[in-house]
Amino acid sequence: MRRVAIAVLAVVVAVVLFVVLFTFRGRQYEWVMLNRFGKLVENPTTIAYGWHLCWPTDRVVRLDKRLHLYQSALEQTGTGGRETLSVQVFAAWRITEPVRFYQSMGGGSDVEAQKVINTKVMGTAKAKIGERTLEEFFNVDEKQVQTTNLENAVRDEVNADIRKNEQGIEVAQVGFARMAFPPEIAGPVYTRMAAERARQAERFKAEGETEATRIRAQADEAALKTRADAGREAAKIRSDADSEALDILAKSQEAPGAMDFYRFMKEIEMFKNSMGPRTILILEAGKSIPEQVGLLQQKVVGPATQPLNK
Mind listing the domains of the chain with CATH numbers? Predict the structure, then answer.
C-alpha cells in the first residue's frame, strides 16, 4: 500500500510539474506567443481549448486584443485664423499584428504604444486644427461644424503612418474630449463671435423682409387677378340669368290665360300696397279692384274695432 501511495503521489507531482512547467493558459481576449531564447514562437502548440505547450525556459508573451484607450493632456494649439484653442484628444486603438507590435514597441509594452499614439495623434490633430478656421469648430449652423470630419481625417492619417512604419496597431477612433478657449482670450473671442452673429442676424432679417415684400406683392397681384376673374364670371352669370328670366317671362306670357293671371296678381299687389295695416275694404262683385278704388274714392272701412262707414 505504501508503494502504491508513493507511486500515486509521484504521478500527481509529475502531472502538476508538467502543467506548471510545460503548459500555459491563454485567455480568449489575448494574443499569446512564446519568447524562446530571443525568438518568437507565434503559434504555440495547442493541447486543449485555451491550453498550450511550452518549455520551462520559454517566456509567455500576452498581448490584449481589446481596445485600448489613450487620452492626451490639455494642450494649446492655434487655428488657421490664429486663435488659440485648448484641446484634449482621445483615441481608441487595438493590436492588429502581434509580432510587429512586439518587435516595434519594446517587447509589446503598452506604455511604449501610448507614447507612439500620443506623438502621432496629438501632432496630427494640431496640424489639422492649424489648417481650419474657428468657425469650423464653433458655429450656430451645424452644417458648418467640421469637427467630425477633422476627427476622421486625423484617424486616417495616423493609421496610414502606422502602417507605413509597420508598428502592428490600428486606431479605431479619434475624438476631441475637450475643445475650449484659454481664459485669457475667451472674453474677446466671445465678443467677436457675438458681433458676427449679430451681423448675420441683421442680414437674415433684411433678406427676410425682402422676401416678405416680394411674396406680398405676388399675393396682391394674384388677389387682383382673382377679383377681376370673379367679377367677369359674376357679370356673365347675371347676364345669363337675366336672359333666362326674360325667356321664361316671354314663354309665360304666351301661355293661355297668362296675361289675365298676371293682371290679377298686379292688382292684388297694388291693392296690398295701398292699404294700411288692419284695414277692411268692402268691394262690389263683378268689378276690378282699381276700378272700385277709383269710383268709391277709397271707401275704406277702418280698423275692425271702429264702426263701419258705408
Answer: 2-64 (no CATH), 68-180 (3.30.479.30), 258-301 (no CATH)
